[in-house]
Amino acid sequence: MFDTVYFLFCVLAVKITLTGAKDSELADCQNKIKELARSYSLKLHLTNQTDMADWPQSTVQKYYEYCLQRRVIPTLDIQNSILDLVGPKDAVSYSLTWFQMRSQSFCVLSGAIIGK
């Protein structure tokens, strides 16, 4: 009944090996690296995103492609109206803007159709 859609995207993993004379210095360095990595990434959890229930499948696919091209991992739970975005801060921001603009477009379009 439903067609399965597959999205291919690259995942980049970096492994850093720290070496040093003192364990306390290694732990401090490790914490600084983790803090830096956290400062460049963002996890966004939005609820009550009911507008996406009106999106056709083609729009959902375009949104996934848009996000994945920017290294953002989107999770759309349409039944529960939840959107999760995980990725670089600026890319998450762009993906959220795209989502909001698309949702507003469907609201305006729906209002125009209902109004006639």
Could you describe the 3D structure shown?
It contains 3 helices and 3 strands; from the N terminus they run H-E-H-E-E-H. The protein has helices at 23-40, 57-69, 89-115, and strands spanning 41-46, 73-77, 82-88. It has a 3-stranded antiparallel β-sheet with strand order 1-3-2. Residues 109-116 have low confidence and may be disordered. Helices cover 50% and strands 16% of the residues. The chain is elongated. The protein has a domain at 42-115: Ribosomal Protein S8, Chain: A, domain 1, CATH 3.30.1370. With 116 residues, the protein is α+β, with helices and mostly antiparallel strands.
Please outline the helices and strands.
Layout: H1 23-40, E1 41-46, H2 57-69, E2 73-77, E3 82-88, H3 89-115
Antiparallel strand pairs: 1-3, 2-3
